[in-house]
Design brief:
By secondary structure, the chain is mainly alpha-helical. It has nine helices and no strands.
């Protein structure tokens, strides 16, 4: 947790960066939690062409959808761990009674989760796009849409992770809660990349993902903070 002394109350910025440093340090000490989603993403995206029609036309047609579905499922794998370790070691109680605003601390945990689980998927996506014979002209767009999409998924997942923390089989319940909310992200993201690959108008999807991300950033930290308080009662 964030160290506090009697003479100096940490600022909100110190609290935000402090909890992010803590999460990144824990991920460094337990790399398996961070690598599992990445390995899942890699396996799904690389094995699918071997099991399906591997013609260039078919791969280009299905590539965006496969990459997006794999990214969604890989992100879901890591969501359950967002608050579980804090719940098990008692850190969650300290977070809840902290003098710092709880939504701010939640925001730090969400961004940390995205840096650990979402950003690697974005960075590896151009290399996987080569597997699907996708044009290099859309690699940048693919990374942009995946970046906004995985950020949104981390925010949405924080609500489910907060509501199911401490529950048996919480990962299954979390998936049932989050998948319906994640469907618009999947549709906009995959469709945007597909339209760009066909040289058709695609900016509507980018604006929709951006609006979704801004709404998530503005509202979800408060919703997740309320869910944590409810789960801890």
């Amino acid at each position: 947790m964030i160290a506090e002394n009697n003479n100096h109350q940490p600022s909100m910025f110190d609290a935000f960066t402090g909890i992010m440093r803590r999460e990144l340090l824990l991920a460094w000490k337990k790399p398996g939690d961070a690598l599992n989603p990445l390995f899942f993403f890699l396996m799904v995206c690389t094995l699918f062409p071997l099991a399906a029609n591997s013609s260039a036309e078919n791969l280009q047609l299905n590539g965006p959808g496969i990459l997006w579905v794999a990214a969604l499922l890989a992100t879901l794998l890591s969501l359950n761990s967002m608050f579980v370790s804090d719940y098990e070691d008692g850190s969650l109680d300290q977070i809840l009674i902290s003098l710092q605003p709880l939504p701010l601390l939640v925001l730090g945990k969400i961004f940390s989760h995205w840096l650990i689980s979402g950003l690697p998927l974005v960075l590896i996506s151009p290399f996987l796009a080569m597997t699907y014979k996708m044009s290099s002209d859309i690699y940048g767009l693919l990374m942009t849409t995946l970046m906004m999409g995985t950020i949104c998924l981390s925010f949405l997942g924080s609500i489910g992770a907060a509501l199911t923390v401490g529950l048996n089989r919480g990962n299954t319940l979390l998936s049932l809660l989050i998948l319906p909310l994640a469907m618009p992200i999947l549709v906009f993201g995959a469709n945007t990349v597909s339209l760009a690959a066909k040289n058709e108008f695609y900016t509507t999807g980018i604006w929709a993902l951006a609006a979704y991300a801004v709404a998530a950033l503005s509202l979800i930290p408060y919703i997740t903070a309320a869910a944590l308080r409810i789960s801890n009662e």
